[in-house]
Amino acid sequence: MGFAQFRDDGRIFQVRVGVVARSNGRVLLHRTAGDDIWSLPGGRLMVGETAAQAAMREMREEAGAEVQPGELLWVIENFFRANALDAPGVDGAPADHHEVGLYVAVRLPPHLEQAESFTGVEREGTPHEFALEFRWFGLDALDGIDLRPASLRERLAAGGAGVQAS
Predict the structure, then answer these.
(1) Angle value at C-alpha 79, between 117 and 71, nearest 5 degrees
(2) 5-157 has which fold?
(3) DSSP-based helix, strand, coil % in the chain, nearest 5
(4) Cα separation of 68 and 86, whole Å?
(5) What is the DSSP letter of 54?
(6) What is the mean pLDDT of each run of 10 residues along the chain (166 residues)?
(7) Residue 107 CB: number of other CB atoms within 10 A?
(8) What are phi and psi of 66, to 5 degrees?
(9) Rounded to two decimals, what is the model's pTM?
(10) CA dist list (Å): 18 to 21, 30, 62, 127, 135
């Protein structure tokens, strides 16, 4: 079973699963350690895997966390140019991406909901491991950060459906 991704003339098409964890008016975001760009945690879907299964796998791989998946919240098509993480070298070569994102609500274990931040590691699907930083952001603070895709800002701020901490 491989990733739901293929290349065509140097362009990359992929299906990504994003994890939407919210607790106490905050949302969990992550970034490559030292980077300026934040996103919802997650990664590429594996062929034959459900979005909920991918959300659980990605959080287990990247943060060592067992999460409880909820509903599929959004499907977002996104076009961007970025370094290809599956290319040789940590940064890879820049490539045009066409991404279909499936965003799944999850509940994190209580010890991670109570933490302000924690670290993780990207291991799967890349030629080299690299450190990840996870941090909770208040929904009112999203305008002050570089969040990708940018369309998530409105969806997250609106609250909407999803698993909420009690």
Answers:
(1) 55
(2) Nucleoside Triphosphate Pyrophosphohydrolase (3.90.79)
(3) 20, 50, 35
(4) 28
(5) H
(6) 88 96 95 92 96 97 94 96 66 84 97 91 64 94 94 85 39
(7) 19
(8) -95, 115
(9) 0.86
(10) 10, 11, 13, 21, 15
